[in-house]
């Protein structure tokens, strides 16, 4: 399952970087890439029985636009191999994406 969200903010890239680093650390993710315009995190175990335990890769691209606003693109790639995905799992991941957006803004 893949979820994506684009967010535009007036915050600068370094503040966004700091906020996302703090959010993902508190949420139990391990950082796999840390570059000025690219962050990546991982969490979960293969064949987990819960949405929270599913392997997930989070990729965040950060870039400044011409209008001096910062554009953030968040992609969550959730490995649901061997699982039936029910609405409450979808809601869990939508809520996770909403929490990431709140951390940015």
Please render the helix and strand layout as text.
Layout: E1 2-9, H1 13-26, E2 30-35, E3 38-43, E4 56-64, E5 70-78, H2 87-104
Antiparallel strand pairs: 1-5, 2-3, 3-4, 4-5
Mean pLDDT rating: 90
Number of strands: 5
CATH architecture: 2-Layer Sandwich
So how many helices? 2
Could you tell me the radius of gyration in angstroms?
A: 14 Å
Q: Strand fraction band?
A: 35-45%
CATH homologous superfamily classification: Kinase associated domain 1, KA1
Gross geometry: elongated
Give the tally of structural domains. 1
Instruction: List the helices and strands in order.
Output: EHEEEEH
The helix/strand class is: alpha+beta
Proportion of helical residues:
25-40%
What is the first-to-last residue Cα distance? 25 Å
Main β sheet profile: 5 strands, antiparallel
Which spans have pLDDT < 50 for at least 5 consecutive residues? none
Instruction: Find the CATH topology.
Output: TATA-Binding Protein
Strand order of the largest sheet: 1-5-4-3-2
The CATH C-level name is: Alpha Beta
């Amino acid at each position: 399952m893949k979820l994506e969200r684009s967010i535009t903010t007036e915050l600068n890239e370094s503040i966004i970087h700091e906020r996302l680093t703090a959010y993902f650390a508190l949420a139990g993710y391990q950082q796999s890439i840390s570059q000025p315009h690219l962050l990546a995190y991982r969490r979960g175990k293969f064949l987990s029985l819960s949405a929270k335990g599913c392997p997930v890769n989070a990729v965040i691209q950060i870039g400044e636009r011409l209008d001096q606003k910062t554009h953030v693109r968040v992609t969550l790639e959730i490995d649901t191999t061997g699982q039936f995905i029910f609405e409450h799992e979808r809601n869990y991941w939508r809520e996770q994406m909403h929490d990431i957006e709140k951390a940015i803004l």
